[in-house]
Write a structure and sequence with these properties.
The structure is a single chain. The chain is 29% helix and 23% strand. The chain is α/β, with parallel strands linked by helices. The strands form 2 sheets. Strands 3-2-1-4-5-6-7-11 form an 8-stranded mixed β-sheet, with helices on both faces. The protein has a 3-stranded antiparallel β-sheet with strand order 8-9-10. A hairpin with a 2-residue loop joins strand 9 and strand 10. Helix 1 packs parallel to helix 6. It is globular, with a radius of gyration of 17 Å. 5-O-phosphono-beta-D-ribofuranosylamine binds next to helix 1, strand 5 and helix 6.
Length: 241
């Protein structure tokens, strides 16, 4: 606790980049002990790329179409990330599946945000699927990335009720607001040293989590606040790391 680090992040995007901007703003405002070393887009025309440049962030475009072989594309991606000095990789609307060797290279230090309450609704069109299933609750998840799509251990979730008149757009907009808060909060917890990943387990304040953190359990300002210890946390694990 209290060991505030300055995490260097690579943020990977494909489009709008609003989660990347939320992370950038939290870093800039000093709300979390992190900094974006590099924004990478796999699409040259991504709106988020221009937004990142406007903020003065370092950016790179690495397009899959420039590489006949997927391994070469991922090698270029990894080379750019590693050369930037980023120790952590945040997928934020990055619409590309990464192969197992690439994911393993960043094991325990690659996160993703997904617009559903995983394990419900991995993959695309989550808002539509929630509405079609008549579900009353929806939300977003921040999870560790593993080689299987949206299947890594879930770190934290934020929830909201689905309302009677909700459309795909209306519910997407509300979930996005939750995303913008949740992702920086999780990064802040990592930066403060309270949240760690050991052997595939998520560890908060030295205790393995049995269930994902709820947004309400996270400190609003990860640098200043100390969230209450989690009463329901599982068995203790060794200190260090
Ligand atoms: C978000 O809903 C995120 O959860 C999903 O893709 C969307 C990206 O939005 N993975 P943005 O590019 O961050 O605005």
């Amino acid at each position: 606790m209290g060991e505030h680090r300055n995490l260097q992040l690579a943020v990977l995007i494909s489009g709008r980049g609003s989660n990347m901007l939320a992370i950038a703003q939290a870093c800039r405002a000093g709300r979390i002990g992190a900094q974006i070393a590099l924004v990478i887009s796999d699409r040259a025309g991504a709106a988020g790329l221009a937004a990142a440049q406007e903020l003065g962030l370092s950016t790179a475009v690495i397009e899959r179409t420039q590489y006949p072989v997927r391994e070469d594309f991922e090698r270029a991606l990894m080379a750019a990330i590693d050369a930037s000095g980023a120790g952590w990789v945040m997928l934020a609307g990055f619409m590309r599946l990464l192969s197992a060797p690439c994911v393993r290279h960043y094991e325990g230090r690659m996160l993703n945000i997904h617009p559903s309450l995983l394990p419900r609704h991995p993959g695309l069109h989550t808002h539509r699927r929630v509405l079609e299933a008549g579900e009353r609750e929806h939300g977003c998840s921040v999870h560790l990335v593993t080689p299987e799509l949206d299947a890594g251990p879930v770190i934290a979730q934020a929830r909201l009720p689905v309302l009677g008149g909700d459309t795909e757009d209306s519910v997407a907009a509300r979930v996005l607001q939750l995303e913008h808060r949740l992702y920086p909060q999780v990064i802040g917890l990592i930066a403060s040293g309270r949240l760690q990943f050991r052997d595939g387990r998520i560890v908060l304040d030295g205790r393995a989590l049995e269930t994902p953190l709820a947004a309400e359990e996270l400190p609003a300002d990860a640098l200043a606040a100390e969230a209450p210890a989690r009463a329901s946390a599982g068995g203790g694990v060794g200190a260090g790391c």
